[in-house]
Amino acid sequence: MFSHRNAHYWLWFLVFGVIAGLLNYKAHGTLGSEAIWLLVSGLIGIIVGGRWLNEGKLAKPYDLIVGIIFAAVGIIGILLNFGLFNLSKVGLPSGVLSNDSLIGLSLAVFPSLIHTVLGLNSINHGFKAK
Predict the structure, then answer these.
(1) Alpha helices of 12-58 — where are they, by DSSP H?
(2) What letters, b where the CB count within 10 A reaches 16 and e where it falls short, cover 48-84?
(3) Is the dihedral of CA 53, 59, 62, 67 positive or negative?
(4) What interhelical angle do 33-48 and 20-28 show, nearest 10?
(5) For the stretch 94-111, what's the b/e string if a residue is b when 16 or more beta carbons lie within 10 angstroms of its beta carbon?
(6) What is the pTM of this model?
(7) Other CB atoms closer than 10 Å to residue 4's CB: what's the count?
(8) 9-41, pLDDT tens digit by residue?
(9) How many CA atoms does the CB half-sphere of 49 hold within 13 Å?
(10) Using the 8-state DSSP alphabet, how is residue 94 labeled?
(11) Which ranges of the chain would DSSP assign to H, the alpha helix?
């Protein structure tokens, strides 16, 4: 039986990683950093939650770290789209911000909303873990 946490990462991996990655590859001929982030982070979420790997003790720190990353990027994207935040004034190192993406994750409207939901859900799993 799947736990809510495992279902979250399996859906993350399959829907946003595999399916979105394949569609992106079909449309652009490349996987893209967004698809790679979602594919890899979803797969790692599945792996670290496994009981065979240290009884799943790595799941809580992973959930909190990946949750904070995705939620932060999502919230920044939402604020940017409302015009309440300006990344050009923050002074980020080169390579961190490029072409409307932050660390390779899109800051467009719908991806920002998805990142926020995935991130907050992961943080929730991290806080609920034993």
Answers:
(1) 20-28, 33-48
(2) bbeeeeeebeebbebbbebbebbbbbbbbbbebeeee
(3) positive
(4) 160
(5) eeebeeebbebbbbeeeb
(6) 0.90
(7) 10
(8) 999 999 999 999 999 999 999 988 999 999 999
(9) 21
(10) B
(11) 4-11, 20-28, 33-48, 59-82, 109-128
Give the integer Cα–Cα distance in Å for 32 and 24: 7
Instruction: Please tell me the distance from the alpha carbon of residue 125 to that of residue 130, in angstroms, as a whole number.
Output: 10
- Both tokens of 64, joined, read 């909190």
**Token reading at 124:** 């929730």
Kindly give, in sequence order, each residue whose CB lies less than 8 Å from that of residue 103, ignoring residues fewer than 6 positions away. 69, 73, 96
| Residues in the chain where the model's pLDDT stays below 50 | 1
- Identify the CA nearest to 44 among candidates 32, 57, 33, 59: 59
For the CA atoms of 39, 34, 129, 68, the dihedral, rounded to the nearest 10 degrees, stands at 160
- CA geometry: angle at 47 spanning 46 and 50, to 5°? 90
Mutual angle of helices 33-48 and 4-11, in 10-degree steps: 150
Q: What is the pLDDT of residue 2?
A: 60
